[in-house]
């Protein structure tokens, strides 16, 4: 009976684990400790997050403030003439003996004792297959890293120092206005500019186009602010219409040049704005502050013949702009004025900008040459010298005709103004004081000259 039983052979499988003792990677990745708060806080989507991360995590290389590439190319000889030898690598450069160690292959780096103890028949990998926690360690001593960090901060302190940055900014003004350059000792109110090189002086006196050196400079305009044209608000706005406010004709209607946009406060729109403002105040303020939206009543002159008189009244170069005969309409009290009729009401479709930042959105620039624009006309005043004058535009608003809906529109029609009687006069003391403050923000000497 025993001989009839089948013999079953079973192989015994023994699992043997071999450790793969390999050296750590020559350039281990740097693990950053970033809190996993997700997108709820909004810190990962803000522009300041990357800048803060760069400041907290120093570079692992020895680099200057410009990362080895000079950004200011004016002082480099021949750079604008197409000669790039000054910034190109020298052919056939000899290797310094002290730099030969930097050209070693990666296979020769690391711990030699650990590399020789590995098993030859295992697949090469950079990580061990053990159950222990995997981590990366640098072969560089911590004391050596501290010394390297101290050496790294010294050269970057010179160019990133705020005083040095201010000196280089002042240097640009010293090149443009050498007579006004400050040559005394540094103080809390005055600071000397950085040293000006001969190449920078030649680049200013004999400018060349960076791409086409054959071009010749015909004329230049100094960039200046038009202080007298700054309004009481300190800025201008651009209004864009969906279509022509007036009926289309073959000729241009000059009443559009003297039209008036009168803002009207809408209670419903004001409530929506207050809700948006409260939500913005409670947020992290990474987004721009909401802008108040208005409705606008659009007024145009009743008589097209009044446009010429309106422009003359507003022209400071006109010697007869104070003539009362320029007005076209008589008032009930015996005075004269310009009559404007309301055409329609517009509502805000979209708008962009920041009323608190005057020079970060748009700048309008006008080239003015009094000899070419005005000439020697008897009795005509030259208000401005030659220059390119800029005007801050903080907001661009697109408007469209407002629809009349239900009882709310009927109530608004009862409170609307259908006609304006406009007279041109000098601003009061309060408006002049507000305008003076806006001018003094650009040129502080305006306040002292007005007081004197």
Automatic annotation (TrEMBL):
<protein>
    <recommendedName>
        <fullName>Paf1-domain-containing protein</fullName>
    </recommendedName>
</protein>
<dbReference type="Pfam" id="PF03985">
    <property type="entry name" value="Paf1"/>
</dbReference>
<feature type="coiled-coil region">
    <location>
        <begin position="410"/>
        <end position="437"/>
    </location>
</feature>
<dbReference type="InterPro" id="IPR007133">
    <property type="entry name" value="RNA_pol_II-assoc_Paf1"/>
</dbReference>
<dbReference type="GO" id="GO:0016593">
    <property type="term" value="C:Cdc73/Paf1 complex"/>
</dbReference>
<keyword id="KW-0539">Nucleus</keyword>
<comment type="similarity">
    <text>Belongs to the PAF1 family.</text>
</comment>
<keyword id="KW-0175">Coiled coil</keyword>
<dbReference type="GO" id="GO:0000993">
    <property type="term" value="F:RNA polymerase II complex binding"/>
</dbReference>
<dbReference type="GO" id="GO:0006368">
    <property type="term" value="P:transcription elongation by RNA polymerase II"/>
</dbReference>
<dbReference type="GO" id="GO:0003682">
    <property type="term" value="F:chromatin binding"/>
</dbReference>
């Amino acid at each position: 009976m025993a001989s009839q039983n089948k013999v079953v052979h079973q192989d015994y499988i023994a699992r043997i684990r071999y450790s793969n003792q390999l050296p750590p990677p020559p350039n281990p990745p740097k693990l950053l400790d970033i809190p996993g708060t997700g997108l709820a806080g909004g810190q990962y989507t803000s522009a300041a997050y990357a800048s803060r991360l760069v400041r907290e995590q120093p570079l692992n290389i020895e680099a200057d403030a410009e990362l080895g590439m000079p950004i200011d190319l004016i002082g480099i000889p021949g750079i604008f003439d197409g000669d790039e030898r000054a910034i190109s690598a020298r052919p056939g450069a000899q290797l310094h003996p002290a730099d030969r160690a930097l050209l070693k292959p990666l296979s020769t780096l690391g711990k030699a004792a650990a590399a020789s103890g590995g098993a030859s028949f295992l697949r090469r990998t950079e990580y061990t297959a053990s159950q222990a926690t995997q981590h990366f360690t640098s072969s560089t001593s911590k004391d050596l890293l501290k010394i390297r960090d101290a050496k790294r901060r010294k050269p970057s302190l010179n160019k990133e120092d705020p005083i040095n940055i201010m000196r280089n900014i002042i240097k640009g003004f010293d090149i443009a206005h050498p007579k006004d350059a400050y040559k005394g000792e540094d103080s809390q109110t005055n600071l000397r500019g950085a040293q000006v090189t001969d190449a920078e002086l030649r680049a200013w006196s004999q400018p060349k186009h960076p791409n086409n050196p054959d071009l010749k400079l015909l004329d230049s305009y100094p960039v200046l602010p038009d202080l007298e044209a700054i309004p009481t608000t300190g800025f201008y706005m651009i209004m864009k219409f969906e279509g022509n406010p007036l009926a289309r004709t073959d000729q241009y209607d000059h009443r559009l040049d003297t039209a008036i946009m009168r803002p009207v406060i809408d209670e419903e729109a004001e409530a929506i704005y207050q809700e948006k403002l409260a939500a913005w105040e409670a947020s992290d303020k990474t987004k721009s502050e909401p802008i108040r939206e208005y409705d606008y009543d659009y007024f145009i002159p009743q008589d097209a013949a009044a446009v010429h008189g309106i422009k003359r009244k507003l022209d400071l170069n006109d010697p007869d702009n104070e003539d009362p005969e320029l007005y076209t309409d008589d008032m009930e009290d015996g005075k004269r004025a310009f009559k404007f009729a309301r055409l329609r009401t517009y509502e805000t479709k979209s708008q962009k900008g920041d009323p608190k930042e005057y020079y970060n959105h748009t700048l309008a620039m006008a080239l003015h040459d009094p000899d070419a624009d005005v000439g020697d006309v008897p009795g005509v005043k030259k208000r401005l010298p030659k220059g390119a004058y800029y005007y801050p535009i903080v907001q661009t608003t697109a408007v469209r005709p407002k629809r009349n809906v239900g009882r709310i529109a009927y109530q608004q029609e009862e409170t609307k103004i259908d006609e304006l009687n406009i007279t041109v006069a000098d601003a009061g003391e309060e408006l002049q004081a507000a305008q003076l403050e806006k001018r003094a923000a650009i040129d502080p000497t305006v306040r002292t000259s007005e007081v004197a």
